[in-house]
Specification:
The protein has 14 helices and 15 strands. The protein has helices spanning 2-21, 100-103, 106-122, 137-146, 193-205, 233-245, 257-266, 279-288, 296-305, 317-323, 327-336, 357-364, 369-375, 378-384, and strands at 25-32, 41-49, 52-58, 68-79, 81-86, 125-130, 154-157, 211-214, 250-254, 270-273, 291-293, 340-341, 401-405, 418-423, 426-429. The strands form 3 sheets. Strands 3-2-1-4-13-14-15 form a 7-stranded mixed β-sheet, with no helix packed on it. A 5-stranded parallel β-sheet has the order 8-9-10-11-12, with helices on both faces. Helix 3 crosses helix 4 and helix 9 (296-305) packs across helix 10 (317-323).
Length: 430
């Protein structure tokens, strides 16, 4: 009998030891924006176990032996921010940017992407959608980050965008006949349904997570129109249907109305920029549940730079001056009309790491600060199809947690200075 009791005591103490060895990280949050509602919680403890949120408890829970305490009592804690439109491999740096594609190789782009990814994570963005690279370097970067070889946000990438001949994102635009490369579906140029399907399948093969197409002209390409439709309905339907077969969503660059209309009717998931969206398009987006990713920052950036002589090539300058200033107003109307909004900046046009400036532009255009925060968390997670693991502070979600000093509901510009970054339970900035 005595012996049995001793055995019991030993096994109990072992159980106690194993509980202690599973040490938690306790985050003491003065305010917490969980993104499950527009309310702020105050004085809570977020318990992080390994890479997951284990619990959110009222008050500042006393740490047990071995626990790590992170004191953010002065700050507002929220889910890791998500930017649905970035280009990590490049950053616009004036006229010479147009020469990069003649002088840079895959490795140059890859190294740039690794650098900008680090800067983006540092700004509080723990997840991004990369909507267009040059050589699938962001597929390699995504894999390196998830293996811990490189540091950056969790990346969902399209690889290389898909355009039609001469369209926005055709990599052979603006090159002399003598030097122009032969480009096809693999390089992102399609004509007709067959090539449209081939391009989607080729991206699946090369490791893309989703598809991006350029349904209308764009601002920065060396081509005349910034808004004409550039895909036919049969091509759009071929893209969307094929993407669905491979479990991929479709993001659509669009400025002009007709291209947007065709794309939404074909069943795409998000419209990027959306400059000339009118009431008919807004209604169509609401009816189809299509997301709008505004990128107001990119509009402001190109409108500003269009004022500088020689900053853009002659074909680009008038497009930048005409389209850039309209996007914030488009956003205002879309938000009022109840179009679903996901946060996106087009960083790479503006500087990486400035992503948080988009929040103030959204609020300036009439969005409540809490809704702006939700656009970059719960809404973006829904657009990505990862609501089960990301987008809110809730037990069971991945521990992607950021914080700013003070209260961003009172002053949204605080989002430009994220002071704490945790991704997957690992602290990257404190
Ligand atoms: Zn873009």
């Amino acid at each position: 009998m005595k012996k049995t009791l001793t055995t019991l005591a030993v096994s109990l103490s072992l159980a106690t030891i194993s509980t202690i060895s599973q040490a938690d990280t306790l985050i003491y949050a003065g305010n917490a924006f969980t993104s499950t509602s527009n309310e702020l919680l105050s004085d809570v403890t977020i318990v992080v176990d390994d890479n997951k949120i284990e619990a959110i408890k009222e008050g500042f829970v006393k740490a047990e032996e071995g626990d790590t305490v992170i004191d953010l009592k002065h700050a507002t804690v929220m889910p890791g921010l998500m930017d649905m439109h970035v280009h990590l491999s490049s950053q616009h740096g004036g006229p010479q940017t147009y020469l990069d594609r003649f002088s840079l190789n895959e490795a140059d782009y890859a190294l740039r992407a690794a650098n900008y990814a680090k800067i983006t994570l540092d700004a509080g963005f723990t997840t991004v959608r990369n909507l267009g690279d040059s050589y699938y370097e962001t597929v390699a970067l995504r894999n390196a980050i998830s293996k811990g070889i490189a540091t950056g946000p969790r990346i969902y990438t399209v690889g290389k965008s898909i355009a039609t001949t001469g369209g926005h994102a055709d990599p052979s635009n603006g090159i002399s006949h003598l030097l122009r490369p032969d480009v096809g579906p693999k390089q992102g140029v399609v004509n007709g349904e067959v090539e449209a399907r081939e391009a989607v399948r080729s991206r699946y093969q090369d490791g893309a997570d989703l598809i991006k197409i350029t349904a209308t002209g764009g601002v920065l390409s060396v081509a005349k129109s910034g808004q004409n439709p550039q895909f036919m309905t049969d091509e759009l339907e071929a893209i969307v249907d094929t993407a669905k077969d491979y479990g991929m969503t479709v993001a659509v660059h669009a400025h002009g109305k007709e291209g947007m209309k065709r794309a939404i009717e074909a069943g795409v998931d998000s419209i990027e920029h959306g400059t000339h969206m009118d009431e008919e398009i807004r209604n169509l987006m609401v009816a189809n549940g299509t997301y709008y990713v505004p990128t107001i920052m990119a509009g402001k950036f190109v409108a500003d730079k269009a004022k500088i002589d020689g900053y853009f090539p002659e074909l680009v300058r008038p497009k930048a001056a005409a389209i850039g200033p309209l996007i914030q107003k488009t956003f205002e109307k879309a938000h009022k009309a109840g179009v679903k909004i996901a946060f996106g900046t087009d960083s790479g046009v503006s500087a990486h790491g400035d992503n948080g400036q988009e929040f103030a532009l959204m609020v300036e255009a009439g969005m409540a600060p809490a809704d702006a925060l939700r656009s970059a968390t719960i809404n973006s997670a829904q657009l990505l199809g990862v609501s089960d693991i990301l987008g809110t502070l809730e037990a069971g979600k991945l521990a992607d947690i950021v914080a700013v000093s003070g209260n961003p509901i009172d002053d949204i510009s605080l989002m430009e200075n994220v002071s704490f970054v945790m991704k997957d339970g690992v602290v990257y900035k404190q």
